[in-house]
Amino acid sequence: MDISRQSEHNKATIRIRDLNKCIEVDEGMMEALKQQGDIPYVRAQIAKITSKNEERKKEISDLEKRIEGITRGDIDSEIVATNKSNYQEQKNKNAIQKQKIEESRLRNADNHKLSMSYNNMTRDSDRQERNLKREIDRSYNYFKKIDSTVPEYIETNLKDMPNTKGYFWRGIACFGEKEPDFTKPLTLFEKQKGGVLLIHEYYRDVYNLYKKKGKDKKKLEYTESRRERMIPRHI
Q: How far apart are the first and last CA of the chain?
């Protein structure tokens, strides 16, 4: 007997064995039920078990005939067709499983890329935040350092100046303490070596830099258009 026939023969034999075991168990149960007397519940249960065992006996009879057919080779074509169907079904299952594995791999790869991208962005953001904080701390420390060196005459003059006038001291703008005068340009004075005074004037759209030495008249040294309302520095 070839492998395919043997396989079908074995499956039928095992099924017959299992059915006979079920019949044996249920018949023992019927005997136990009969001991409870001839009552409606017992009769119903016995009828149910009897019907089930009749179905099992019929299946056993069909399986025994099938075994005879397997032995004679009567159902070889059925076995071949079943094997082909089972092979194709298994092949389809394998293809589906392979596809799921590939999809999972691609999904994991995409998730890994997203995770790497997120981690990189997070690191960049953290780095930028640290750099910004470092720059702010450096600027603030510089401001405190320079603020402590502002000459007394500047501090005195600032008390009588409007908030739109003041001084540049070592790169730091110091503004007057009185109410601003918006009828005049924002003006900052900056003393240089050799008695030279730089005068920075900021209009809404123009920045002018004047130079004045001693009692000479101020002289325009530089001018530029302004696009933003901010204080530029010209050195």
A: 105
Instruction: Give the chain's count of helices (H) and strands (E).
Output: 4, 6
8 A C-beta contact, residue 69 and residue 1: no
User: What DSSP state is assigned to residue 194?
Assistant: G
- The residues that bridge with 190 in the sheet, in sequence order, are 198
For residues 53 and 26, the answer to whether their CB atoms sit within 8 Å is yes
Q: Tens of pLDDT along the chain (235 residues)?
A: 567 778 888 888 999 999 999 999 999 998 988 888 889 988 899 999 999 999 999 999 999 998 888 888 887 788 778 778 877 888 888 888 888 888 888 888 777 777 777 777 888 878 888 888 888 888 888 888 888 899 999 999 999 999 999 999 988 889 999 998 889 999 999 999 888 999 999 998 899 999 998 888 999 999 999 876 555 454 3
Conformation bin of residue 228: beta by default, left when phi > 0, alpha when psi is -120 to 50: beta
* Domain ranges, ordered by start, for the chain: 3-74, 151-225
Contacts for 158 with CB less than 8 Å, ≥ 6 apart: 166, 167, 174, 175, 176, 177
